[in-house]
TrEMBL record:
Similarity comment: family membership: Belongs to the G-protein coupled receptor 1 family.
Species assigned in the record: Nezara viridula (Southern green stink bug)
Protein name: G-protein coupled receptors family 1 profile domain-containing protein
Subcellular localization, as worded in the UniProt entry: Membrane
Keyword check for Transmembrane: yes
Keywords, comma-separated and alphabetical: G-protein coupled receptor, Membrane, Receptor, Transducer, Transmembrane, Transmembrane helix
The G-protein coupled receptors family 1 profile domain, residue ranges: 1-71
This protein's record includes keyword Secreted: no
Bilayer topology: Multi-pass membrane protein
GO cellular component: plasma membrane
InterPro entries, alphabetized: GPCR_Rhodpsn (IPR000276), GPCR_Rhodpsn_7TM (IPR017452)
Amino acid sequence: MAIVRPLKHRMSRRKALLALLAIWMASGLLALPCLLYSTTRTRRYSNGQSSVFCMMQWPDGAYPTSTSEHV
């Protein structure tokens, strides 16, 4: 608000807290699918080494066959 309308009176404390709560709730809801469908996989190589990586395992399959990932 200070950038968009710098000369207008300030927002009340209650409105500011409600705006912050709405922003945090929206970001949490947008991040929820990543929390629910993230998984880790371990890949082992022939030389004995292994690496762990994170991937999204959607209900309709993994990349590249998942249509949920494109949505």
